[in-house]
Amino acid sequence: MQAAETDSTQRRDRFPRQIPFIIGNEACERFSFYGMVGILTLYIKNHLGKGGNFGAEVSHYFKFGVYFMPLFGAWLSDHVLGRYRTILYISFLYCAGHSVLALSDLTGSVDVKLWLLYLGLFLLSIGGGGIKPCVAAFVGDQFRPDQGHLLQKAFGLFYWSINFGSFFSFLLIPRVAKDHGYGWAFGIPGIAMGLATLIFWMGNRYYRHVPPAANSGGSYWGMLWYAVRKQGERQKGEGFWDVCRNNGATADQIDGARSATKVLGVFALIPFFWALWDQNSTTWVIQGESMVPYQIPATVLELPLLGPTIRFIAGETIGAEQMQSMNAIQVLVLVPIFTYLIFPGLERMGIRVSTLRRISAGMLMTAFSFVMIALIQRHLDAGEKLNVLWQTWPYLVLTAAEVLVSNTALEFAFREAPVSMRSTLMSFWYLTIAVGNLGVAQVFRLNVKSTLPDGKEVLYVSGVNQFWMFAVAMFVVSIAFVLVARCYQYREETVSKSAESH
């Protein structure tokens, strides 16, 4: 009996064997996505000659599409196909989008290139966005109820794999674009996405599948629309969602809708975080382009092995686009530090490290990162020549903020969601990214005062003032989020109080 209990405990404390397939899929998919995104702004600005403000605007509109499409993916997953088939089928559209981008650079006309770019970005929006809420929720599906204590580490590993893939893409793809052209630079991410799809399919026999919920009365948006229309029929003592019973919704579905609405209230302020964070691939890259690239000292390191000697030669240049890899490598370091050192240490000191407290701290740090980037811009506007490595410090603060906000929010959404609405709540999280990118894209559009005859844009707010504007707005939003988080009651606390009252 004791041996059986020991074996059971070991299984409970060990990741399911299917997790590596999902993690491998995510690493390759993120390589493909960030490899393309990392070169997009300067491709539009320089290669197509459309200007930096337009390049940033298109990039943020694309990200809006990517992070809006999880609503579609979540509905398809939760109510039609299930998570596994949704991920697999939509991945083919993902691959098609990369193929169109790769082929777009074979044409000579800038106008044709631009329209093929739009088509490729549209397909990538469906593919990349459609699978997002499903993959994160699919990770959680693989754990049994008695393995809930592994979720924080699992989502930490999941997020670590995202940045493992993005780190190498940020280093490799800009160099490919420089040496071999944008056809290959867009094509290699497509190959990576094909590999991601293959790895995911290979793990099928091990996966735990949660079947899609019944369509009748269970869709969040369907329930919301029905509840709004039927409020006049609500009986005394009934809550907003209770009228959905008349439409076939179960008690669990009504409880899920309540939970989803509470999460939406918390997520309402998160778009401001993404409006700033996603500028690391637009305004930060444009700033870095005006800085002095870092030349890695040329060295030769010889490692004698059994047989021939292998030489490692350094001497590469780190420019604006490659600096985006700073975020990824810092995440690879910071996720284990936060997960295994900082959070447990604070808990041992008696400081509760709840999910919303982590998110609050991350939002404040985001504002500080823009203070730092504004100070760099002030020196650049004064005519100083700064090395691009000065961006390392704001990247470090922004990355710590990302770990505290993005990684934590995946855990928060999963824990707060009933099984039938996990993909839906994940899609709400990605919707905050969509809204943030839509908002900042509109800021860039409205910020154009006029265009001179030579095509140069004139902006209302530019340079250091633009970064100060974002920093101040983020400080205000962060304080508001802290107040909202203090009033939030976690789902497990609500269930516990309900059980005690009975």
Keywords:
mainly alpha, two-stranded antiparallel ribbon, two-stranded antiparallel sheet, 18 helices, disordered N terminus, disordered C terminus
Can you describe this structure?
This protein is mainly alpha-helical and 502 residues long. Helices cover 70% and strands 5% of the residues. The chain contains 18 helices and six strands. The strands form three sheets. A two-stranded antiparallel sheet has the order 1-4. Strands 2-3 form a two-stranded antiparallel sheet. β2 (299-304) and β3 form a beta hairpin. α3 (52-68) runs antiparallel to α16, α5 runs antiparallel to α8 and α14 (355-381) packs antiparallel against α15. Residues 1-10, 305-313 and 495-502 have low confidence and may be disordered.
Silhouette: globular
Largest sheet: 2 strands, antiparallel
Structural class based on helices, strands and sheet pairing: mainly alpha
**β-strand amount:** under 5%
Distance N to C terminus = 36 Å
Mean pLDDT: 81
What is the helix content?
A: 55-70%
> Could you tell me the radius of gyration in angstroms?
24 Å
